[in-house]
Each structure stands twice: as structure tokens, then as C-alpha cells.
Records
---
Amino acid sequence: MTKKQRKELQRIIIAAAVFFVFMIGENLGVFPFMENKLIRFIIFLVPYYIVGKDVVKGALHGIKERDIFDEEFLMTLATIGAFAVGEFPEAAAVMLFYSIGEWFQGYAVGKSRKSIKALMDIAPEYANLLMEDGSTKEVDPSEVNPGDIIMIKAGERIPVDGEILEGSSMVDTAAITGESVPRSARPGDSIISGCINGDGLLKVKVLKKYEDSTVAKILDLVENASSKKSKTEKFITRFARVYTPIVVIGAVILAFLPPLAIAGLKAAGILPEGAVDGGLLEWIRRACTFLVISCPCALVISVPLSFFGGIGAASRAGVLVKGSNYLESLGELSVLVSDKTGTLTRGEFKVSSVIPEEKREDILQLAAYAENFSDHPIARSIKAAFNKDIDEKLIKSVENISGQGIRALAKDYEILCGNDKLMRENGIDFVPCKEAGTVVYVASDGKFAGTIVISDTVKAEAKEAVSSLKKSGVKEVIMLTGDRKEVGEAVARELGLTRTYAELLPGDKVSIVEELEEKLLKNEKLAFVGDGINDAPVLARADIGIAMGSMGSDAAIEAADVVIMDDDLMRIPQVVRIARKTLSIAKQNIVFAIGVKILVLILGALGIANMWAAVFADTGVSFICVLNSLRALKE
Amino acid sequence: MKKKFDLEDLDCANCARKMEDAIRKIDGVKDINISFMAQKLSIEADDDRFDEIMKEVIKACKKVEPDCNILM
């Protein structure tokens, strides 16, 4: 609660106490002096003044600025109208409940703002700059430049993106990625600003200025997310713009037209004298009901608040959504197109099978010796699968045959290790392999020994993520890959994807996404997920571009609309759920608020709904909508 | 020059919208965005007249909501 809110609350309580004492007292007949109209007026003016002072002041300000559709002005006009027609308790009550509604609204907004602020509490406060004489100096993060050396002590927040020169530690990345397991950081590793250093002392070379560092980018992004308005928000702003003038004009018409018409009809003799009556005062009373309902606040506040809450909930899960519009689109997601390597698969190669299996050890050993000095991913995966010490003294010679493989003299064998071309060129009688993946044939002393198949491994959570997306109503999950058809189809089968496009060139991805988007229905959206490194054009082209596992890659943060900070694919169904929930909350609010307002307007015009109902239709509805919006924050 | 300021006691979303509209009309303002939720005002304006422009911005905000302060 802010100071202003506390003061306001005190005023509301005092005013409410005064109001109810006299209200109940009057009804029980214990205050006979209230039969005097003037005294009664003054008594109800007291709570009115206590809570409504600022509103009336705001109204005068509105008049000065010639803004007659100002909320405070309308509220004041309605209550003065109520006083004028002798509805004293109603006038005071309208002001009282209006203030209560406003107060709760402010409180709720403040509360959700606080949870967002907590999320934004990732800004580093200082950096320890290493000076030439070896001492350190505390400076503002924005004062360090690339190339400077900084020291990061245990428990401190990493101020800028950099590279570790000395020291090692476990770094808590939760604030940035939502990932709770700390990452190890050693010399040579790059570290991301906004994370918290564990218990080691790190000497770090600054790579980026503060404003280009991850933490500054993220803060910027979250703060600006609400400036990209969703369709729903735009609708409501447009609606609010016309709603108030229409209702106010309606109020003016209601106040004067029916009494004039009735009087006219009576004068013309069409209506008998004294038939339908109510008089001018009755119609003014009804018009005041209109004015109370004319404020669009419930709508103007609650829809953006739901989106703000949704974006907050997503950020807490380690997913940055760059605008309300993207959150809305995620809620309408029907086709998810995914890149393969690095997104659905780890992008790490592993020996998936050795043929024949019973000679596994021998084949791996031959290949490992041949590939020992190579640093190619394939060589590394073979050595990892072999997982035994290699006696380098036994390797006599190694010859790289480009485009084919390796010929090595090791362990007294002449080993050939490579593709089918290598086998053919050397006249080896080999068994061609059709398995999905990269195929490495191994031969020793001119005889075929066997085959090693190396393939990328599918991420552990990928299958569950796909099925969970389908469950939440995403119709298609499609994979695009530059890989061979067999490889693509094997992955698609394993994960239960609906379609695969394989053997694509980089430019093909954009045209496929365009084609798929054309087939979408009006309220269906397409998202593309990629690792954000080579996918920038597709990320930009798709309705929603989602970058994965891009911690620290600012190219990805820039190009994508939604950034998943850790590598976890399960974040996608999670953020879709958050988006759907947010969207449904926003829609509930719109239907509820507009519905109640229209209902009370009709009943008010007919004289059935009084000012109490109008107060509910204004502040009660606002309050309920704000409370409903807060649900978007929880996931 | 692009700058960001915190806002204090910005109480209504509609006022934020009105302030934006008013500030956009000030000469020399290239871009303006007021986030009601973040209570922040980000402005891009001509470098050489920046202070002058900010004075007008403050005036424009006060006109919409007298209680609201821009923390400089």
C-alpha cells in the first residue's frame, strides 16, 4: 500500500462509518432531526465531502481543460444531479462506492505491478571495476566498457555480459531463465548479466556495455511489452472512446426528451392529464443513473491488466513475450512449425547403433583409433561411445582423405573409416546401411569390419511437449529440416509430429511458412520455433517467432517475438496455456462489463434500476474485473 | 536522445493514454510511450532542445493529471 492509498483508505472508512450510522439511524427512526430536509442534506454532504473532495477537484480540473468526458466530471455531475433531485443518500453512496471501487482498483493494480517489479528485480546495482593498481572500485554498471576487467564476488549479481578469465563458480541463472539448477562457470565460459554468482570469486573480462547486455535487453523488453497492444485491447480502447460520449448523450436525451414529449402529448390532448407521470425530476434521476454507468474504467483497466498479468506469468516461467499482441496470438496458436537441429533435437551427435552389434567394441575401437586426432563432431561422438583410453603410441600415421574419411595405421592395422565412397575407392566389399543418421563404414586391412551410425538425439522432453501441445488444441506440429528425408521422418515418428519437410535449403523455410500461413483460418495463428541463430528471416516472417535456448544470444532476442530463455521445450505448451487463460479472462471481462452496463442502462432508462445498481455496474464491475484479471498472473 | 523516467502516482490508464496524446503533439518529440503498468515514460526527442522539451512534457502531464510526478 502506498502512502496515498493508506490516506485514501482512512478517508473511505471514516466516510463509510458516518454514512452508515446516519443511514441505519434514519431507517430505524432514531434520528428525528433528519426529517428536516436541510439537516438531512448537510448530514449526507459530510461523507460525500470526505471521500469526494478530490473527485470534485478533478472534475473542476476537467472543466478547466474542457474535457467533459472526464470520469471525475461525470461522476460529480451525476452526484450533484442526485442531490438536486433530493436523493441524498444515493448521492453520498455513489461517491462512497465509487471511491471504494477506485481504491480497490488501485490496490489490485499496485499489487500486480509489484509482482512484475519483483520479476524485474534483476538489474545489477554496481560493478567492481579492477583498477590498474590492482584495487577494485565500485562503479555503475553503465560505466564499464568492453575490455575492462571486473571482479564478481560471491553472491553478487553479474553486472554485464562477459567472459571468465579466472576463478570458477556455480551461477544461479533462475532470474533470467527460470531454470533452478545452477550452472557451472569456469575460465573461458561466457557469463550472462542478471544471473547471481555462487560462492566463487570471478575475474571477468567485459564483453558488452551494460545497455547491450542481456539484463538490460530483458528489462527493456518487459517494460515495453505493454506498448504493443493486442487486438482485444485496441477494441476496448476504441469502444471506450465512443462509449462514454454515447451514454452521456443518452443521459441528456433521457433527462429532457421524455418529459417534454409527455408534456407535449398532454398539451395536444393525446394523453389524458395525469396519465403517465414522473415529472422532470424523475427523468433527471434516471439520467444521473446513466452518467454513473458512463465510465469505461472497468474495461479500460481490466483488459490490459490481464495481458500484463499474462506476460508476467510467462516471464516468471522463463519465457519473454515481447508484446500483448504476441501473447494474444499464442492463445490462438493452431500450427507450430519447428526447426529440427537444436530445437527438437539436442544438436549433439551420438552413436546410435553399431552394425553388427556383437562386434560393437571392436568396431568402435578401430574407429576411435583412426579418428583420435580429429576434432570433428562425428569423431568426438565415436570417441565418447568408445569411452576407453587410447594409447596414442600405437597410432603410426593418419591421413585425411577429404570428402571420404580417414586412413590410419594404428594397432598394426590399416584402418579405413569413412563414407561409402571411401569403401568403393579402396575396393572394400561393404554392406550399405539405410539407417537414419550419419553412416560411418569401418574396414581393417582391406576387410569390411562394420558400420557405425551416428545421429542427433531427440530432446528428452520433446515428445511430451508435442503431445501436450496437441492436447491444448494445437492442430499441427510440423518440422522443417535441411537433413535427409529418412532422418527427418525418423524424428517425426518418434515425436508424433503431424508433418515433416526434409532436405530443405535455408530459403525454403520462409516459403513453406508463408504457404502454411495462407491456409490458416482467420483466428488461427502460426508459430515458428528455432534456435534463433540461422532462423532470423523465418522468425520474423511467422505470426509468432519463438527463439529457443538463446540465453545471451541477442540476435535471437532481437529477431524473435517470444524468447524461451532455457532450452526446455515444455515451456511452449506452458506459455500457450498462459496465453489461452489470459485471453479467456480478457474476454470474460469484456462480456461481463459490457453486459452488466447495457443491462443496467436499459433497466435505468425504464426506471427499474436505481442509482445503487448503477454504482455496482460501474465500480463493482471494475473491481470484479480487476480481481478476475489477477488470475492471469497465476499459473 | 532516448530517455526513460519513472512516474509517480499515475492513477489511471486512461490518463496515461491522454498524456501520450498530448506529449506527441509537442514539437521535437520523436517518440513517446507511457506504460501505465510499469509507471514509466520513455521519450525520444531532439538532443539540443531536450531539457526544453522535457519542461513542456511535464506541463502536459500536469494538465492531464495534476497529481502525477515525473521523477527526473
---
Amino acid sequence: MCADTAMQQTPPATAGQADILLEAHDLARYFDVSKPWLNRVIERSERLTLKAVDGVGFSIRRGETLSLVGESGCGKSTVARLVVGLYGLTRGRLVFDGEDISDLASRTGRQTASVRKRFQMIFQDPYASLNPLWRVGTIIGEPLRFFRPEMSAADRHRRVGELLEQVGMSAPDANRYPHEFSGGQRQRISIARALANEPEFMICDEPTSALDVSVQAQILNLMRDLQDEYGLTYLFISHDMAVVKHMSDRIAVMYLGRIAEIAPAEQLFANAHHPYSKMLLEAVPSLEGAGKERTTIQGEVPNPVHPPSGCAFHPRCPHANARCKAEVPRLITRSDGSEVACHGVEEGRLP
Amino acid sequence: MSSTPSSVENSGEQNAIAVTGHEPGAAGQEPVLSVRHLRVEFPTRHGTLVALDDVSFDIAPGEVLGVVGESGAGKSMTGNAVIRLLEPPGRIAEGEVHLSGRRIDDLPEERFVPLRGRHIGMIFQDPLTSLNPLFSVGDQLIETIRTHLPMNEREAREEALKLLREVGIPAPENRLDSYPHQFSGGMRQRVVIALALAARPEFIIADEPTTALDVSVQAQILALLKRLCADHGTAVMLVTHDMGVIAETADRVAVMYAGRLIEIGPVDEVVRNPQHPYTKGLMASIPGIEKRLERLYQIEGSMPRLAAIPAGCAFNPRCPHAQERCRVQRPDLMPAEGSLAACWLHDPVDPLPPRRGEAGEEMAHVR
């Protein structure tokens, strides 16, 4: 089982190049959001391009959890979909375990099987991601049917039972339909389906944001247990800073299609550099913060169709100057291991 | 908080009510909203579902009461029952609702309608569905103001401008004639708040007002809501599932479970020193920014369906301390440290001994 070897190779925090499971270089995805041709001609409006993701790069080590965090419209879910090949890349390169998978979205059928079975995605809404007409056993068995056609029906049935038990349900649940389960149980079913082919890499797009807190705790614990057991690597996407902190080894903060800062989780929460990261941390309501006076941050995320010039955060940034308005900052690696895209931090104006 | 806790209840109206029904913090000052033994039922073909069961609380002027719970706990139902927006066949079966000392739950419909907007403001989760997309923001504000207050068109327009300025919309002169879709999510929610405040109601129900918004905007909206209500002396019932929002905004918290009020008290007490086992578990299951645990505490199981609420304490099948009595006899709210909790552990006469060494106990105390 490939997952076993992956677990033994779980790297220390300072692992070298060899342990990198996924590398993303300069990912970009543009969407054409123009009006229809006739409107453009009559109203003389321009073509409009939404740069949902524009130059995002990161790498994920084996056994690690990298989280993408940011407000709505920052492109975090688009990155997840690019990585699994649900969207094609406009620009950039994706390397999975040494193999270039940049063209994954355009590959068809069984050509992709060798790569695709190695990673799986868990979606946000467990009500929409399970086929209501299929029994749970069929849903979980589907990836097995596709990737392992040689497996007998009896073996598959046994495997589905195992998977259900792994996620804290019981084997007879395979005969029931999704509507018979609560949101948390449905998310367990999604996880069981994702685990069916013993993937190494899981992309989790807001897996708990549709769930209540007590159920969220159950699912997050389950995901951590599975990671420990199988040495899974997670790309975890969430807007909830507390959940991200609980789950992550490293965190990438995104803003309007770009990464503002990547840092080890503990460090980001102790000492964020980018003004936007600081703002996000500041804005999170916390239980400990009862009665705390806070400086509320002005403004909202701008429309991504017309992003601000230079650093996209400059209209809301208290430290912005002329350079921030003109020039897009690049991610610069700092001595403490974090990477920050901010002119102020680069110039030493900001701590 | 606008009033001080006191064990001496001096209001005659409150004396008439069973001792267990009300909580410290509301004494001394006439409450704006007073809910007593509220019970909401949904008659169905398969029997009557009890959506709210014996819910009692007060809200003082200028006070924010946070109502928190998981989905299906009955928090929105409580707000809807107060403003009579229950989906049929839901109905108030028992109990009383008093607004500024006047009983409103038995008013005939035609006398109740004028209360909405004028005396009770409402803010809902999704600002796009609470604004009419066909009318400009100004028209909607002016209509609301003129419906409730004796003003002519010009005065109402001035008032609308003042309201928009108050809720922090930049250049309100230019935005008054804009339509809701031309505003961003946060700005729309500001307009909704302006609408809710238009007639200067004494009580506002805010049902998940920031759930659809991003964190940075959420912080702005909560700060705004809190400031305006303090300025106007408006009482607020803030319904949300987000404990963080409650901790930062509310003065007191009411925790609901399976249609029942299980704990109520000052926010610091309930958040830092919860007394009901469910509240303890809930607090311990929330990942925090300031701490990192290897595992989150998890409450096993899930909230019961309305059709299958257990006998006795509704939480007993999931409670680490549950004993025979919990399965038979339903606990009322009882004084527990600084708050009130509906749990036999806090029975003043014969308290149930807690089971030691439960993970929930230990983890809840780490906070």
C-alpha cells in the first residue's frame, strides 16, 4: 500500500526537495466574464477578464498540511480546483511527485487514472456532493469500480464496509441513502469515498463550514486521525482562521488571486508580517476576546474584475505609499522562513 | 450591561411568575422584552412537535442578549415566535410575550402588524433578500420612515440621509438613489441596519446578521450594531451560531438545545466558566486562535430530532454525567455560579454528583 510508505517518509519540518509532493509554479486562471457579443457591440463595452488566480506558487511536502485562507473572492477554491484538474490552467505549472500534471484538466478517461487515483477532493457541501439516488455503498464504491475494475463485487462490498468503519460509521449504513444521514455523517461519507483508493493527497475545500461546531470538531478530529494513520498530505481551504490554525503546518494567506504571505502556522499567528494577514487575525471574533477593544479595519474586498493597481491591498492598507500603488509586490523569503509579498516589509518600513 | 445582578426581585410582574423562569441581570429595570414560558408547537399528522419548550428570558434597554445554539436548537424559532413570523402550522401554544410591559402575543393580527418595524426592528442573515431589488435604497428607507413616523417626503429624505450617514455609508447623497445590487455585501447589511433603525424601535431582532459576510466586514458590522444600539438604548436579541460573535458582542448569552433554554447568564460567565455540560462541551469543541490542542473535544452524537426528544433532560443521551434522574425528570434553570443552568448537577437541594475524569470536564477547564 503506497500510503504506508508515505507514512514512513513523513518528513521533518526541514525536509529537502525530495520530499515535496506537489509543486505549483505561477498558477493562473482567468475567466472571461464579458457580456454577450451583441451587448458588447451595442453598448461598446470591453471584454472583461476576471483574474481569479494570478501567479500563485507554493509547494507541499509529504505528510504536511498546507492551508489556503482568505476572504470570499480571493481565489482559494479556484486554486483547489486547478490542483485537481477541475479547471485548466491559464498559465503556470503543476508538478505532482515529480510528474508534470499541468495538462490534467485536458486529459481524458483512463489516461489520467494513474495520477488521479493518488489524490482526492472533499467538497464543502455534503448535501450537494453525494448523489441522492445512489445508496451510500454505491457512492463509496464508485471510485473503486473505476480505478480497480478487476476487484470483485464481494471484495468491493467488504472494502466499503471497512471504509465506513474507518470514518466512524457502520458497515450496514452502505445500504441506506444520503438523505437518511445528518450533515456531519454525510461529510464522513464524502471522506470515506475520498479514502477508497488510498490516496496520498487530499484537497479539502471548506470541509466543515456547512457544519455545526460540535460536528465540526468530530470531522476535524477524524481528518487528523486519518492523517496520522495514513500519512496523508492535505491542501486545506477555509475562511475560518481558528480551524486553519488547528489543522495546518503552514498557512498561505490569499488576497485577490495572489498569495500575500506564507508562513508556518505558529509563526503566522504569533508574528504575521503582511498588513492583510494582521488585519485578518485581528478581525476574527474569539472567545478569549470578550470585551476586547479592537481597531476595525475599513473597507471591503474590491471587485476582482477591476482590482486595484500595484499591491491589490493598498486601498485598505494603512501603510501604503506611492510604490504600493504602482508596483505589484513579489513574495520575498525572510530569514524566519516566511514569505511575504509587501513592499513595506521588504523595505523594512514595517516589522 | 445596563443593570446589575441582584437576587432580590422587586417587580410585581416578575414575582407572579415561577421562580425558575427568570435570570439575574434583568432585575431592577423594566425589561424591554420579556418572554415567559414560551411554547411553540407544530401539529403534524404524526403528532405534535414541540419546537420551543418553556423558554423564558428578559432583555433590558440597551442590552444585547446573544441567543446561541446549533442548527435545530430553536434560536431562530424564538425570534420568529416573538415577531409572529412562525411558518404555519407552527403556533404559540403557551406562554406570554411582553414588549415594554405590554402583552403582545395575544394581540389580534391587525394590531400586531404595526408593531413590526415601529417597535420591533428586524435584521436578517441575507441582506440581498431583505431588500427589494426593484426600489432604490432611498425609496425603501423613505417608505419605511413615512409608514412609521409622521413626516413628509422632504423630511423623510433628510432622515434617510442621516440614517445612511449613521451606519457609515460614505457619500450618502450619492448612494440614496442607488439600487441594492449596486452595493457590496457589507454595505447592503448597513442599509438593512439603517432600515431596522429607521423608526427608532425599542427592540431589534438580529438573526445571524453577519453570517453571510467576510470576517473583516463582520467585525465592522458588529461594532456598528453594538454602538448604535447602545446610543439609542435599543435592546437587541442577537441570534447566531458563532460563539466568537457572541463573546465579542453580547452582554448576556442564552444557550439553547433542542428547543429549550439550557443556560443563561452574563457573557463572561457563560464563555469562560460554562456550567451546563452541553455548554462546556460546545466551548471546548471550538478551535481557538490563542491555543492549539492536538484534539478538539467532541460531543458524541448529534442533536435529537424534534420528533424524538428524549425524556427528562434533552441532553442526557450525550451527557457524560447523565444518571437515572436525568432520564426521567426535566431540570429547570437553577442558579449555577454566575449564571443559570438547567442541569441536575446544580440542584440546590440535592445536587447530582458529577462523574470525575471526563475528558469534557478537563478540556473545558483548560480555557
